[in-house]
Amino acid sequence: MKDLQKIRKDLHHEILTKIDLSREVEDEEIEEIIHSAIIAKGKKVFLTLEEKRRLKSDLFDSIRKKGVIQPLIDDPEVTEIMVNGIGNIFVERSGRLFCWERHFESKEALNDVVQQIAAASNRVVNEASPIVDARLENGSRVNIVMNPIALNGPIITIRRFPDSPIRMEDLIRFGAITSEAVEFLRKLVVSGYNIFISGGTGSGKTTFLNALSHFIPEETRIITIEDSAELQIQGIPNLVSLETRNANVEGCQPITIRDLIKASLRMRPDRIIVGEVRDGAALDFLQAANTGHDGSLSTGHANSAKDMLLRLETMVLMAGMELPLPAIRRQIASAVDIIVHLGRLRDKSRKVLEIVEITGYQDGEVTFDPLYRYEGDRLQKVGELKFTEKLERSGLM
To answer: Sheet containing 141-145: which strands, arranged edge to edge?
Structure first.
């Protein structure tokens, strides 16, 4: 009985010895070497046409692409890929999670993919630096956790984004938001309101931020700041994209979100977009929003709009500035105009659950009023915008 796994492993080793690594090798040449090796193997061991086709695809993916997970990366219906070592691969498709029938054949094969992903994003991942964020060529977000942190590692988590950016029209069609709320947010973005998007993991914060950014006037100079570049802002010629950098074994120092926000202030931005704040960078974002950069946008993890305010307080305290809580709350009340909160319902659909206006600071607390709230089966208007000065200045009131 033939062992296809062993045949694949033998062919992989044989093909690698035939590739001239001293020069750039085109995909067509790799495919020809693989084809010839399979034909030769087929003269010794009977292989069906389907087995040959599968071998050719698997070998090319393992040598040139991302190995066994390449078909999942190419599948537009897959939104999440979770590789738990060589044992299991879990996949989210259409909001449903299931265990895939395939897996990596060896830790070496998985390590090759890990290093390929990290190198493509100018990242280094190893036992000395075992956690890294990266991205794929198609813009997918990747998190890698290596041994010895991950006992059954390496662990790869890939969040796949649509090939073309989702726009507000798509979100309306999906039922994530109403056209009335979209028009309201469009006016706020154009007028330069500072908007913070909150939600849990997988609630669609980055997707919504990207869709919201399409309302920014095209003459605006935008600086985007992210851990791994994911935003797909289009129609803005004066766009600068900044990305953090990890420390590496060559002695390069890390460059954090905080460093990039501070640097961006010297780059004459009209608006600053921070992909996500999760630590002391919240203080730098608030200060930027408070110093003339109206229309700045960012996201953060929280369970509600109110919780997002509490998390912002906590993250500012993480900056180590020993600021008194009243000063932090006044800073938040002054910097953030609107919070849009997203969530996932029981049916796995993503919805805008709240839109609230930050109305000020009173009796030691940041005050806010709900403007839209998800009730029944749709987002409904429940309040009126109190501070309309920016709308009036832009002529949209």
So the answer is: 96-99, 88-93, 78-84, 155-159, 141-145, 131-135
Query: Which residues lie across from 93 on neighbouring strands?
Result: 78, 96
Rounded Cα distance, 33 and 60, in Å:
10
The candidate with the shortest Cα–Cα distance to 78, out of 96, 66, 60, is 96
Residue 13 reports pLDDT greater than 60 = yes
Burial of residue 104 (number of CB atoms within 10 Å: 0-12, 13-18, 19+): buried
Q: What are 78's two structure tokens?
A: 């897959």
Q: Long-range contacts of range 27-32, CB-CB < 8 Å, 24 or more positions apart?
A: 27/60, 27/64, 30/60, 30/63, 30/64, 31/56, 31/60
Q: What six digits make up the tokens of 172? A: 């309306």
Report pLDDT for 249.
53
**142 close to 188: Cβ distance less than 8 angstroms:** no
159-190 exposure pattern, b = at least 16 Cβ within 10 A, e = fewer: bbbeeebbebeebeeeebbbeebbebbebbbb
Which residues, at least 6 apart from 115, have a Cβ–Cβ distance to it below 8 Å? 125
Going along the chain from its start, the domains and CATH numbers come out as 1-64 (no CATH), 68-162 (3.30.450.370), 168-393 (3.40.50.300)
**Cβ atoms of 232 and 211 closer than 8 Å:** no
4 vs 229: which has the higher pLDDT: 229
Q: What is the pLDDT of residue 172?
A: 95
**pLDDT value for 111:** 85
Report phi then psi at 303, rounded to 5: -95, -10
Residues in the chain: 397
Q: What is the mean pLDDT of residues 324-341?
A: 95
Q: E strand or H helix at 220, and its extent?
A: none
CA distance 124 to 117: 10
Band of residue 120 on the pLDDT scale cut at 50, 70, 90: confident
Residue 25: its pLDDT value, please?
Answer: 63
Residues 338-385: pLDDT tens digits? 999 999 988 888 999 999 999 999 999 999 999 999 998 889 999 999
Average pLDDT, the chain: 88
Task: Give me the helix-helix angle, 281-289 and 325-335, nearest 10°.
Answer: 50
- Please, are residues 356 and 368 in contact by the beta-carbon 8 Å criterion? yes
Q: Is 59 helix (H, G, I), strand (E, B) or coil?
A: helix
